[in-house]
Design brief:
It is a single chain. This protein is mainly α. It has a single domain, classed as Protein Binding, DinI Protein, Chain A, CATH 3.30.910.20. The chain has five helices and two strands. α3 runs antiparallel to α4 and α4 packs across α5. 11% of the residues are buried.
Length: 173
């Protein structure tokens, strides 16, 4: 993300010089759309789902156990002995702490893995944009810094098509 901002700032500084050049070729890409829709991103998302889906289900199961125990305490708490009620309350507190620790560890691990997986996707997007620019002779391609881009200069779908072709060729190798 930082690289994109630095690149955009640099490119915006270069716009006046390029605008003065004869027949400057300028294009626009929607980086966010490319990251969301690319097959690389969809593949990364499905891998994360396979890896973290069972862990999330385990957390949900713990949540259900906690809720069932809490409901039992509310329902039967008045007729329980003091010792039994205190024991159940202690068990609830321990289960809640364990659940919170597990959820926090899950979120941290998921965020780390997601950042790693989507770092590769962002790099693939930037590589596809650079390749298109070089192959088709663009002088400037802007991203999120553009306030307006007509369909005539929007290269997003063409970059996405290239990413799909590259993904398919890597997949078949």
């Amino acid at each position: 993300m930082r690289t994109i901002l630095v690149l955009t700032a640099f490119l915006l500084g270069a716009v006046p010089a390029i605008a003065m050049a004869d027949s400057a070729k300028i294009g626009y890409v929607d980086i966010t759309y490319l990251i969301d829709k690319s097959p690389q991103a969809q593949d990364a998302s499905s891998k994360l789902e396979k890896e973290f889906g069972p862990k999330q289900q385990g957390l949900q199961k713990k949540q259900q156990q906690y809720q069932q125990l809490q409901q039992k305490l509310q329902k039967d708490g008045l007729v329980m002995s003091d010792d039994k009620r205190q024991e159940m309350e202690q068990k609830l507190r321990e289960l809640k702490r364990e659940m919170q620790r597990s959820q926090q560890a899950f979120r941290e691990e998921l965020n780390i893995r997601r950042n790693d997986a989507f770092k590769d996707v962002r790099e693939a997007v930037m590589q596809a944009v650079q390749n298109l620019a070089k192959d088709e002779g663009y002088d400037l391609i802007v991203g999120q810094g553009a306030l307006y881009a007509s369909d005539a200069v929007n290269l997003t779908q063409r970059v996405l098509d290239r990413m799909k072709k590259r993904y398919e060729s890597k997949k078949s190798d």
